[in-house]
Amino acid sequence: MNVEFAHIPEIERLRSEIDRIDDQLLELLNQRAKIVVEVGQQKVAEQPNSPKLYVSTREKSIMERLANNYDGIFPFESIELIYKEIFKTCLKLQK
Questions:
Q1: In this structure, what are the phi and psi dihedrals at residue 69, rounded to the nearest 5 degrees?
Q2: CB neighbours of 22 closer than 8 A, spacing ≥ 6?
Q3: Domain boundaries in the chain?
Q4: Average pLDDT, integer, range 20-46
């Protein structure tokens, strides 16, 4: 049985808050992507013949920093998967 809870005011309020956070996440991902593109452009400018776009130590340091500062209920293993996808996508944007 599919039960719709939209008629409950508190659920509506919470869902609106989730929607607002989702919008913020999208905006932040796009801000991050724009900066990543700029970083890629700087790498190419510094080494036009063979820029090193992928730096595994940078990804590792980001994940270590996030893990050390993490204090949430969202499983960190899932955050790692999300960030791996972000890293992969951002590398494609740099090329």
A1: -95, 0
A2: none
A3: 9-94
A4: 96
End-to-end alpha carbon distance in the chain: 48
d(CA 34, CA 18): 24
What gap in Å lies between CA 50 and CA 46, rounded to an integer? 9
CA angle centred on 75, ends 70 and 78, rounded to 5°: 105
Q: How confident is the model at residue 1 (pLDDT cuts 50, 70, 90)?
A: very low
Structure pTM? Answer: 0.84
pLDDT digits (tens, 9 = 90+) for 38-92: 999 999 999 888 888 898 999 999 999 999 999 999 999 999 999 999 999 999 9
**The token pair that represents 74 in the structure block:** 């969202």
Level-2 CATH architecture, domain 9-94: Up-down Bundle (1.20)
How big, in percent rounded to 5, are the helix, strand and coil portions of the chain? 75, 0, 25
